[in-house]
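User: Reviewer 2 asked us to show a designed sequence for the structure in our supplementary figure. I'm pasting the structure tokens here. Could you produce the per-position amino acids so we can include them in the response letter?
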């Protein structure tokens, strides 16, 4: 499976649009998903499945994580989505995004179905990952069991639009505070619940879309919050959102340099050559095992995003 690959930006692409699929190939996103769910009208689903199989097999995706969002399990389409796409292009597919997951049974169903298709078609069993979308109150309540329901789970994905509708939140603008609520962040509990569940299960936490595609400042504000909390990435709906989201979910250069320097300095100071110390100084800062763990997170995100160091630490020479 695709473990810790960077998922800073994940582009939503309607599976029914040849034009948008073609355009997606050239965008600098870490991941894309070809959608069979809400972006595709009921009468266009069958044709979109075939188009998606063709697009995956054609390739040209340049190392991006390749995903397909199938329909939710409260429809009649899901099994046919999975069978058509995985039988037709399973070797060219990294994960399936499963929307409106409200119970771990949904994930188990997909895991078992994938295993069947993989066995029947000679694909490596277990390689295709699952990204459950948390989009209602039941899903949030069951989130720990959902995250643990299959070793294929690679990320938990917040679906803010469906989620806000499901809890009757009095707002139509995804990510912005509902008018009348002025004592905090109305999304804090939901976002933290998803993040903690993802971290406890060792999988990634991904924020959903920001729908005002022309409002890049609003995107920066809303996405900046989830990036600051520790989410790994966010969906994008339009080319205009890509750069902002990649930037928000990459460490700043100075933080990346600092993190790598903490790791190097700490390794040297704890080694025999550096005096085998448990805590040490890096400039004016004391670093210890806990600093190393924090630095590993930032360095890991920077490395996954392909960043390079500009200011490497060197051991003292005397
Ligand atoms: C995405 O699927 C959402 O509901 O926000
Ligand atoms: Mg949704």
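Assistant: Here is a per-position design you can include in the supplement:
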């Amino acid at each position: 499976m695709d473990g810790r690959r960077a998922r800073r930006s994940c582009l939503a692409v309607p599976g029914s649009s040849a034009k948008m699929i073609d355009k997606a190939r050239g965008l600098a996103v870490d991941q894309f998903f070809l959608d069979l769910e809400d972006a595709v009208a009921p009468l266009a689903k069958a044709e979109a499945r075939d188009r998606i199989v063709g697009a995956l097999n054609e390739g040209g995706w340049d190392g991006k994580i390749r995903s397909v969002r199938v329909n939710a399990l409260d429809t009649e389409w899901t099994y046919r989505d999975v069978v058509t796409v995985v039988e037709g292009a399973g070797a060219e597919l990294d994960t399936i995004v499963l929307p409106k997951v409200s119970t771990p049974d949904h994930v188990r169903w997909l895991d078992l179905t994938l295993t069947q298709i993989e066995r029947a078609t000679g694909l490596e069993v277990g390689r295709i990952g699952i990204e459950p979308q948390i989009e209602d109150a039941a899903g949030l309540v069951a989130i720990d069991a959902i995250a643990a329901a299959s070793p294929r789970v690679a990320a938990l994905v917040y679906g803010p639009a469906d989620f806000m509708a499901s809890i009757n939140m009095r707002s139509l603008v995804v990510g912005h505070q509902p008018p009348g609520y002025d004592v905090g962040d109305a999304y804090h509990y939901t976002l933290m619940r998803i993040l903690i569940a993802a971290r406890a299960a060792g999988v990634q936490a991904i924020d959903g879309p920001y729908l005002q595609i022309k409002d890049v400042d609003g995107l920066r504000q809303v996405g900046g919050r989830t990036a600051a909390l520790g989410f790994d990435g966010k969906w994008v709906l339009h080319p205009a959102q890509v750069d902002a989201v990649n930037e928000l979910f990459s460490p700043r250069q100075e933080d990346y340099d600092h993190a790598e320097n903490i790791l190097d300095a700490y390794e040297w100071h704890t080694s025999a050559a550096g005096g085998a110390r448990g805590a040490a100084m890096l400039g004016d800062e004391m670093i210890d095992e806990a600093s190393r763990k924090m630095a590993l997170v930032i360095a890991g995100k920077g490395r996954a995003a392909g960043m390079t160091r500009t200011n490497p630490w060197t051991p003292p020479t005397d």
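For the response letter, you might also mention the following. The chain is about 45% helix and 15% strand. The longest helix spans residues 104-121.
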